Amino acid sequence: MFSNLAEVPERRARFTEERRFAALDQPLHSQGRLLWRRPDLLEKHTEAPEAETLRITGDAVEVALPGQPMRAFSLAAQPQLRGFVEALRAPLAGDLATLERLFDAELSGAPIAWQLRLVPRDARMRQAMAGMEILGALAEPREIRLRQPNGDAQTLLIEPLP
Amino acid sequence: MRQGGTAGLVLVALEVAAEPELARISRAMQARLSSDARFSRIAGGEAAWSEADELRIFAQRHLLSPLIRPEIFETAALRRALEEVLRGLRSSAAPLVARYALPDPIGAFPAWLAMLGADHRLTARDGAWFVTGREAPRAVILAVIAGGGTEMAAQEAGLAAITDAFTLAEPGPARLLLAGPAVIAREASRGIRADVDRIAVISTLLVVALLAWRFRSLLVLAALAVPVLLSVALGIWLTGLFFGSVHAIALGFGVTMLGVTLDYPVLLLGHRKHHEAAHGTRARIRGAFWLAVATATLGLGGLVFSGFPGLAQLGVLAAIGLLAAAAATWWLLPPLVVAAQLAPVAAGEARWVHRLEGARRFRAAAIALALLAGGALLAVGGPRWETDLAALSPVPDAARALDAELREALGAAEAGQFLLVRGPDAQTVLQRQEALLPRLDRLVEAGVIGGYEAAALILPSMARQLERRAALPAPELLAARLAEASIGLPFRPAAFQPFEAAVAAARVQAPWSPAELADTALGLRLAPLLGQRGDGWQGAIQFRGVTSVAALAQALEAPGAVFIDVRTELDGILAGFGARSVWLLALAGLAILLVLALGLRRPARILRVLGAIAAAQIVTLAVLRFAGVSLSPIHLAALLLVGGVGLDYALFMARENLDMEERARTLRTLITCNAMTLLTFGLLATCATPILRDIGATVALGAALSLGFAFLIAAPPRLPARLPQ
Q: Per residue in A53-62, pLDDT tens?
C-alpha cells in the first residue's frame, strides 16, 4: 500500500473540515484545497469561511492570512505541531520510515478500503494528539480523523481532484 | 567586563559529518557530560526551555507580561480577545490556540515571549542544536564549567572532559571545535608557552652550536652562560617582587630579549688576546662596553613609562637583566677567563679584514638608502599605528574568529557597546532599567539599534509585578465581563474557567526575584545581565545592530547608568599609546644622546654612532610600513631592543686607532653576536602567536640592518695604514 502511495508525484484535492472543541457549543466548518508534491511540500489553502494558506516544506512552515504579514517558523521548534504535519504528510508521501519513527502505526482493512491508526510515540506529542485515523481507498487517503486528549476532534474529508 | 558566571562557558561545535551523525555524537556527549559533576550546566538539544520551566512561567504570566493593564480587562477589550480566539480556532494553528489561548485569551504569555525576542539562531533537531542558515551542518553544545571556571586547573579539566566525551562518542571523521572564555584563556597561555618552549629549546641549541664552533671550547661556553643565567634569574625574581607576578608577555618576550645579554660575555671574550690579563681586554673595550650597557638600559628601561602593564614589566625586567649581565661579565667573568686560559682561537689571517673593509666604499649608498627610506616614510605619513587592540592578544586569529562566530550563532549580543545600570540592590537596577525601556523601544523604532537585551525584559522588578497584580480584576467582576463579552459567540459557559482561575490565583501570587529564575533556561540568560559587583548590583543592557553609536550614547544618559563603548575606549587607549610612544622614543633618544655625548665626547664620533642607529631604525620602520604592518606597543618594545643591540654594534665599530688584528676581533665578535640574535629572533618569527611573530620579525630585521649600518656608517672612515706589530 505504501509503495502505491509513494508512486504518486503530486496530489491535488478538495477538502472539507469539521472541528469540534470542548470549549465551543457548536462545530466549526471550513473548506478549501490541498496540494502535495514530492518530496516534502504540503499546502493547505483554506477558502471559507476565512482565507488562509499554510505551506510546509521540509521543516519550514509558513502561514499567510489575508492582510497580514506572512509568519514563518520551524517545525523543529514546535514538536507538538510536527505530529500533525507528519501524520498528514508521511502517508501522502508513502514515507513509512517517518511514520514508524513517530507513531505506533496499525494498518487494517483491504486495499480497496484501508484504515491506518496512528498513536504518537513521544509523550510530549501525545499531549497534543491522542490519536489519528486515516481512511483510504487504493492510493488515495479519503478521510483523516484526529482526536485530542481533551476531547477536541477534527475530521478532514478529502476529495481528489484530477 | 563580563566576569563571574560566564567565565566557565564553553561553546562546543561539531562539524564535518552528516547531520544525523552529528546529532548522534552530540546526544552521546550531552549524556556523558550531563552526569559529570565538573559541569554546572550542559545544554545542546532541548527546545528553548523545558516543559517544567514553561509551566512555571505560564503560571506566573499575569505578573510577568507587559500586557497587563486595567484596560485589558474591560468588556470591549475582552470581546475583541474572544473573537480573536475564535478566529484562531478556525485557523490551522487551532491545536496551539486551544492549548494556549483558552487559558490565556488576552495573550499575556505570547506578549511576554514576543518582548523577549527569542530569535535564536539555533534549531533543535533529533536532540541536538544546529546552527541555522549554514550550508554544512554544525551542531552546538553549551557547557558551563562548575565554579565559574575561574581556576585554570578546573578549566583544563573541564575542557579535557569535553574532548574525552567527543572521543568516546566514536566521532569518525567529525571534527570538534571549542570556543568561549575558558578556551580563549587556555589558548592564550598554551600558545605562548608552547611557542616559547619550542623556541627556547631550538634557539638554545643553535646558539650553543654557533658559540661552540666559534670558540671551540666547552669551558668558554660554560663561562659565557654565567652572566645570561644570572641576568634572567635576577630579572624575573626582582620583577616578580616589584609587581607581584610576571605578565605572560613580559615573561615570553623578556626571557628571549635577555638572550641578547649573551653579547656582553661574547664581546669580552671575543676581544681577548692570547695570554692577555683580563684587565688588558677590559681596558681596551671599557668605553664602548659601558656606553652600550648604559644606553641599552636607558632605552629599554623607558618602557616602564609606556602605560601598558605588560610593557612596564618588560622595561623593569630588561633594565635589571642588562645591568646584571653587564656586571657579571665585567667582574665575575675575568677571573674565570684567566684561570681557565679562555680566549678565542687565534685571530688568524687578518687579510680578509682588508677585503671586507673595502666594502665601506658603499657608505654613501647606505646613507642615501636611509635618507630615501626616511623620505618615503614621510611621504606616506609616517608609520601606521595599530588601532585594533585585538592584534595585541596572544590568541591565534582562528580561535578568536570561531569564538565570535559561535557566540553569534547562540544569539549572544555584540559586546561592542553596552549600558551599565547600577544600583544598591537588584530591584533598584531593574527599576532603573524599566524607566529606560520606553527610550530603548523608540531607538529600535528609529533604527538606531536593531534590538537589545536587558535583565528587566526577562524579569520585571518586583514593584512592577505588584503594579500588574493590582490591575487584575476580582473574580466576580471578571466572570460578569466575560459573560457579557461572549454573548453571541459559540463559547460554552465553562470555556474560560482556566483563565478565570489563573487570574484569581495571580491576585495572591508572590512576585518573582531573580533567584526564582535561577534554575531555568532564562536564568542562564539573566545571569550575565544582572549581578552583584562589590557592594552594589549592576546590569548591562546589551545592543544588537547598532547603526549610530553617538545617537545611542546621547539617548541613554540617565541617573545610575553609564554608557560604555568598548571600541572607543580601546581606540582611546591606542590613540594615547601612539602619541605617548612618540614622546617615549624622543625622551629615550635624548637620554641616550646625553650619555653618548658624555662618553664619546667627539662630535664626529657621536654623529657616526647616532647616524648608524637612526639609519637602521628608519629603514626598519620603512620596511614594516611598506610591508603593511601596523605598529603596536609590542613593536615599540622590539624597536627599542633593536636600538640597544644596534648601539652595541655601533659603539664597538666606532672605536678608533685600532690595529688590524683588533679590528678583526671586533668584526668577528659582532658578527657572532648578530648571528645569535638573528637565530633567536628569526625563530621567533615562525611562531603561531601573532605578537611573538611580530617581535621576532622586527628584531631580526632591525638587528641585521643595525650591523650593516654600524659597519658602513659608525666605523671610522680610514683604516690604519699598516699592521702595527
A: 989 888 888 8
pLDDT at B330 over 70: yes
Q: Transcribe B586-610 into DSSP letters.
A: HHHHHHHHHHHHHHH--HHHHHHHH
What per-residue confidence (pLDDT) applies to B324?
A: 93
User: What one-character DSSP code corresponds to residue A25?
Assistant: S
Is A129 within 8 Å of chain B by CB?
yes
CA of A23 vs chain B CAs: smallest distance (Å): 5
The beta-carbon neighbor of A25 closest among B87, B102, B492 is B492
How far is it, in rounded angstroms, from Cα B112 to Cα B122? Answer: 20
Segments in B542-659 forming alpha helices (H): 549-555, 566-600, 603-626, 633-653
Reported as a single tens digit per residue, the pLDDT across B635-664 is 887 888 888 889 889 988 888 767 777 888
Q: What is the mean pLDDT of residues B97-117?
A: 84
pLDDT at B15: 85
**B400-408 long-range contacts, CB within 8 A, separation 24+:** B400/B184, B402/B13, B402/B177, B402/B179, B403/B11, B403/B179, B403/B180, B403/B183, B403/B184, B405/B179, B406/B11, B406/B13, B406/B140, B406/B177, B406/B179, B406/B180, B407/B11, B407/B179, B408/B121
Are B643 and B299 contacting, i.e. CB atoms less than 8 angstroms apart? yes
Task: Give the best residue of A17, A18, A21, A50 to mutate against chain B (max B CB count within 10 A).
Answer: A21
Of B89, B95, B123, the CB nearest to A28: B89
For residues B495 and A26, give the distance between their C-alpha atoms in angstroms, rounded to a whole number.
13
Which 8-state DSSP code applies to residue B558? B
Tell me, yes or no, if B495 comes closer than 8 A to chain A by beta carbon: yes
**What local confidence, expressed as pLDDT, does residue B691 receive?**
73
Which residues of B fall within a CB distance of 8 Å from A30? Answer: 90
User: Does the beta carbon of A30 lie under 8 angstroms from any beta carbon of chain B?
Assistant: yes
Q: Could you tell me which of A84, A72, A87 has the C-alpha nearest to residue A127?
A: A84
Chain B residue numbers with beta carbons less than 8 Å from the beta carbon of A76 are 123-125
Cα→Cα distances B58→B85, B113, B114, B183, B247, Å: 18, 10, 14, 37, 51
What the block records as the C-alpha cell of B351 is: 687579510
Instruction: Confirm or reject contact between B95 and chain A (CB < 8 A).
Output: yes
Dist CA A142 CA A116 (whole Å): 11
**For the residues B695-712, what does the mean pLDDT come to?**
91
Is ipTM strictly over 0.95? no
What is the nearest CA distance from A1 to chain B, expressed in angstroms? 28
3-class secondary-structure state, position A52: strand
Distance (Å, whole) CA B167 – CA B394: 28
Contacts of B495 in chain A (CB under 8 A): 22-24
The more confidently predicted of residues B97 and B569 is B97
Cα atoms in the 13 Å half-sphere on the side-chain side of A85 = 23
Tell how far CA B556 is from the center of its chain: 29
Neighbours of B416 (CB within 10 A): 15
Chain A residues inside the 8 Å CB shell of B122:
none
Helix B333-340 with B263-270: angle, nearest 10 deg: 40
Is B133 an interface residue toward A (CB < 8 Å)? no
Please tell me the pTM assigned to this model. 0.56
HSE at residue B715, side-chain half, CA atoms within 13 A, is 27
C-alpha distances in angstroms, A23 versus B51, B86, B103, B478, B503?
24, 10, 11, 18, 19
Question: Of the given ranges (B113-122, B212-221, B526-535), which has the lowest mean pLDDT?
Answer: B113-122
In the predicted model, is pLDDT for residue B195 greater than 80?
Answer: no
Round to whole Å and give the CA distance between B565 and B550.
Answer: 10
* Least trusted range by pLDDT, from A125-129, B260-264, B694-698: A125-129
Does any CB of chain A come closer than 8 Å to the CB of residue B96? yes
The count of other CB atoms within 10 Å of the CB of residue B483 is 13
| pLDDT at residue number B120 | 53
Find the helix packing angle between B263-270 and B218-243, rounded to 10°: 150
